[in-house]
Amino acid sequence: MEFVATFLVCLFILLLLVVALVFGRPPVYRPSREYVLHMIEGMISGEQDQDAWTLFVGLPIIHDPELEEIRQSCYELELDAESGGAVSFGSARYRYNDQGMDRLKLLRGELEQLILKTPVFKSF
Can you tell me the distance from the alpha carbon of 42 to that of 33, in angstroms, rounded to the nearest whole number? Predict the structure, then answer.
């Protein structure tokens, strides 16, 4: 009797797992332009979470080619800081030195222009 009960419980759990895998969606990373702008402004002010920044820089953005160009520029900034060139990692709460912050401000301006050019649409 214990065997049958254990078998049925395991079968039920496996069926729930199969249903979750069949009907579930895979996790995706789709940041919006406004979210990335907020993140860059947080990096400039020194209030941005470093883990969120590393996630943004490290994962390609497939759904928005213009935003991917911004991410690539941020990735190049990160690589420059790691290589120890003109841009280096800053101290305390700021991730980059003055040159890196200037490049971030330029990227913020580019992203603000992209957001202004984004068409507004509604789906009915």
Answer: 14
